[in-house]
């Protein structure tokens, strides 16, 4: 799909909104053995397929297949005896439906980000997030500080908010670090981090968490990719780095495979895959920016949460299946957070699963939460937020506007439970 998109750009083809995805289908593939998982991995590499749920024995793979590759993919699956079903014959109508619903809600939105006021009835653009964070520093100068951690590949600022009643000067206070939108298409993670800011700054209902903890919240870790996902490439995942392959036929690095822990082991050195790990650990300016935050505050950071979607899971390291020495504590705190979320979740969403990322999903390397765990942050997690429902739940990256505020509410319950676990221990 990436190669197809670049070719259209190179040859000057102008597409209507989301026309790039017309005829793309979503396949659900049964995976029972390591051999079958490897077959799908090879299929991904050769055809640059976009796996939304990666292949692992005992789990179903979910993959977006471009229209022009469907016959080849189906023939390959048939040849190897892999059972599959087609969940969605054409994703474009669902993209159009999301766009239409979000646009309608946005027209009546009560948000006024330039005055430091947000409503959770729309997905905010990067510009609106920037305006909101800037406005908060004006409204609450003794509580919040806006810091630029670095610049993206396309030279956009990567900013995080520091929330502290003591201006981060009380070194006895623990730090909680929340990050979202490292993967550009995972829009539902943004309202979760923005809602946390609201509950810590403009609508404080848990004063102990504000007074006893210093907070770092980085709402948009991948600004270039996020901007691209608001254009024609709704399912864009990576950053926008170029120069990795002649003519830039494929672009972008998976930032959640670019951190310096087991870098390169369970990712890809092929640029056209969605899990391309870059030239080296921290080769990308976005991951370098996040590293500066860790470098400065890791000695005080007790809880790190990297917000992703989708799947309703709380995951901890390591992606190699090796468990950290404090795995029992990690699991206990994770279960507490999951139970808090489940207590307020939407009824039709499944309950959160908690566990080691490799054991309940698949092996991975170079991830943010593994790196955070490896440098001594005791409670480091990836949250996989639930899927929204627009027709088919499998299109889990799409966002129903009626779920936006709920995503913030339930994720905040998990975050604050994790924060209180820190205070108790």
UniProtKB/TrEMBL annotation:
Per the entry, which co-factors are needed?
Zn(2+)
**GO molecular function list:** metallocarboxypeptidase activity; zinc ion binding
- Please give the Pfam families that the UniProt record associates with this protein: Peptidase_M14 (PF00246), Propep_M14 (PF02244)
Name the SMART domains for this protein.
Zn_pept
Q: Signal peptide location in the record?
A: 1-16
Q: Where is the active site?
A: 384 (proton donor/acceptor)
Q: Which Gene3D superfamilies match?
A: Metallocarboxypeptidase-like, Zn peptidases
Q: Where is the Peptidase M14 domain?
A: 122-422
Q: Which family does it belong to?
A: Belongs to the peptidase M14 family.
Designated name of the protein: Peptidase M14 domain-containing protein
Which taxonomic lineage does the organism of this UniProt entry have? Eukaryota, Metazoa, Ecdysozoa, Arthropoda, Hexapoda
């Amino acid at each position: 799909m990436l190669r197809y998109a670049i070719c259209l750009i190179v040859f000057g083809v102008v597409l209507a909104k989301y026309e790039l995805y017309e005829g793309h289908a979503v396949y659900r593939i049964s995976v029972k053995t390591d051999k079958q998982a490897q077959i799908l991995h090879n299929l991904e590499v050769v055809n640059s397929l976009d796996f939304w749920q990666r292949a692992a024995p005992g789990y179903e793979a979910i993959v977006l297949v471009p229209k022009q590759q469907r016959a080849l993919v189906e023939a390959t699956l048939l040849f190897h005896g892999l059972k599959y079903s087609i969940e969605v014959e054409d994703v474009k109508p669902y993209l159009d439906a999301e766009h239409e619903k979000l646009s309608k809600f946005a027209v009546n939105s009560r948000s006024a980000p330039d005055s430091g006021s947000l409503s959770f009835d729309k997905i905010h653009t990067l510009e609106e997030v920037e305006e909101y964070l800037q406005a908060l520093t004006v409204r609450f100068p003794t509580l919040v500080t806006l810091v630029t951690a670095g610049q993206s590949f396309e030279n956009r600022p990567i900013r995080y908010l520091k929330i502290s009643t003591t201006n981060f000067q009380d070194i006895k206070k623990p730090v909680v670090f929340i990050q979202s939108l490292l993967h550009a298409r995972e829009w539902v993670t943004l309202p979760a981090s923005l809602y946390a800011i609201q509950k810590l700054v403009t609508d404080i209902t848990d004063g102990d968490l504000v007074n006893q903890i210093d907070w770092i919240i980085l709402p948009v870790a991948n600004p270039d990719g996020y901007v691209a996902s608001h254009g024609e490439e709704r399912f864009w995942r990576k950053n926008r780095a170029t120069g990795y392959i002649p003519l830039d036929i494929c672009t972008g690095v998976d930032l959640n495979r670019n951190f310096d822990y087991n870098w390169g082991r369970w990712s890809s050195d092929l640029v056209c895959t969605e899990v391309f790990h870059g030239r080296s650990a921290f080769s990308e300016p976005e991951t370098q920016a996040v590293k500066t935050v860790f470098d400065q505050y890791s000695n005080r950071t007790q809880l790190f949460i990297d917000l992703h979607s989708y799947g309703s899971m709380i995951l901890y390291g390591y992606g190699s299946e090796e468990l950290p020495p404090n795995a029992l504590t990690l699991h206990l705190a994770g279960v507490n957070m999951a139970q808090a979320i489940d207590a307020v979740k939407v009824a039709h969403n499944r309950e959160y699963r908690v566990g080691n990322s490799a054991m309940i999903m698949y092996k991975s390397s170079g991830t943010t939460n593994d790196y955070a765990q490896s440098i001594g942050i005791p409670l480091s997690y990836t949250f996989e937020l639930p899927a929204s429902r627009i027709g088919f739940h499998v299109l889990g990256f799409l966002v129903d506007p009626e779920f936006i505020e709920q995503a913030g509410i339930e994720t905040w319950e998990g975050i604050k439970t994790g924060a209180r676990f820190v205070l108790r221990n």
